[in-house]
């Protein structure tokens, strides 16, 4: 089963690397026009060029999800190029490692602002425009928040990150309830551990390899393991799915 996105425009926040870049490629391959939002504009410009070279439609826009003016500017640029943005993928996120007694307050603020406030601002701006354009009648508004299995796990060294991801899952339910009559579906996707440029060095280390061996299936998720669920949640097929949280982790959190 495939989930085509022809005629739809999707804005991906946090598209410069990792699963955000992978999501962007998947959306374009499904026929959607993808708007690549990130602070590292030079990276998204290269990605947009690659997508268009493969026959897709892509636009790189500067986006700092912690700044409302930047969020508004990203949506303005998206609409100028492609018209209405039908879907939002709130994927921007950062973490700061260390024991709760040691992490500087500045680091905590950055994680909270990017992961939780940033997702709120991006989802809200998208919803404002969808509602204004008639999403209630069309029923095609889609918001997908990208959480983490740390939202439901207890660990050491990532307390603020995990707390923001738990908050993100509840934010998804809150926004789904608020917009349930506005033709906008809001769902949260919680991935397990996936190899990215942020954690590649760790998982290649002796301690990282030990962490992998403690997983039930002794492996990390494939980089594209979330794509099918993401495309489903952005497509017409999910028109009756809202306020839900989906965990895809290969059993890592069991």
Automatic annotation (TrEMBL):
Name of this chain's protein: SDR family oxidoreductase
Pfam families assigned: adh_short_C2
Family the UniProt entry places it in: Belongs to the short-chain dehydrogenases/reductases (SDR) family.
PANTHER family in the record: 5-KETO-D-GLUCONATE 5-REDUCTASE, ALCOHOL DEHYDROGENASE, PUTATIVE (AFU_ORTHOLOGUE AFUA_3G03445)-RELATED
InterPro entries, A to Z: NAD(P)-bd_dom_sf, Sc_DH/Rdtase_CS, SDR_fam
PROSITE patterns listed in its UniProt record: ADH_SHORT
Organism, scientific name: Novosphingobium album
Highest taxon listed in the record's lineage: Bacteria
Keyword Oxidoreductase recorded: yes
Key words, A-Z: Oxidoreductase
Iron among keywords: no
